[in-house]
Amino acid sequence: MTQAEKIRVMLVDDHPMLRLGVSAIVNAQTDMHVVAQAETGQQAVEMFDRQSPDVTLMDLRLPGMSGVEAIRAVRAKHQRARFVVLTTYDGDEDIYRAIDAGARGYLLKGVSHDVLIDALRRVHSGERYIPQPIAHMLAERPAHCELSPRENDVLALIVRGKSNREIASELNISEATVKCHVTAILGRLGVSDRTQAAVAAIQRGIVHLW
């Protein structure tokens, strides 16, 4: 098989050692090779334009532009772009956002080499690769639980321990409006107080502490 016939893979992760290890695994295969590497979401978007990889292996936690944002940015210009997510994020909201952005595979770091390579091959061939535990978490995600952008802003500040007054000041809205948002957030998350909302936000991947 010539280089031109091999599956062209791009790696996106901000940890050089991980990229080095995955690159060695991919390049050891007879039917694929790494054509590009990026350590930020913005670099991934720019690199995709230059290299046009067949499959991109994408982390979600990246400095600046997130992995989900990078997937959306690439697919806005290249609708046939194929992504496999490789991440530590295992919350149902993380999974939902990645799949909604256009990822066709979702893996957690720590999977075996064989699973990783199988996922790349299947996604390249046009299939989806969503392991059963990931599919189960996605299926268990509550219906109609999406938060509005403003509600996400409020929830992020709740997670940081901000009071309604502090949230109102930071977002330049009234305390009454904050209270309305908090009530809506509790209802959408199916919780009864701010502490439970903060815990649910972190566990489900709605808000990340980084």
Secondary structure elements and pairings:
Elements: E1 7-12, H1 16-27, E2 32-38, H2 41-51, E3 55-58, H3 67-77, E4 83-87, H4 92-101, E5 105-108, H5 113-124, H6 132-139, H7 149-159, H8 164-171, H9 175-189, H10 194-204
Parallel strand pairs: 1-2, 1-3, 3-4, 4-5
Unreliable parts:
none
Straight-line N-to-C gap:
43 Å
Strand order within the widest beta sheet: 2-1-3-4-5
How many domains, in number, for the residues?
A: 2
SS-derived structural category: alpha/beta
- Report the CATH superfamily of the largest domain: Response regulator
Radius of gyration: 19 Å
The general outline is: elongated
CATH topology of the largest domain: Rossmann fold
CATH class group of the largest domain: Alpha Beta
Q: Helical percent range? A: 40-55%
* Number of extended strands: 5
Main sheet properties: 5 strands, parallel
Mean pLDDT: 92
Number of helices: 10
As a percent range, the share of strand residues is 5-15%
Characterise this structure.
This protein has 210 residues and is an alpha/beta fold. Helix content is 52%, strand content 12%. Strands 2-1-3-4-5 form a 5-stranded parallel beta sheet, sandwiched between helices. It starts with 6 loop residues before the first strand and ends in a 6-residue tail after the last helix. The mean pLDDT is 92.
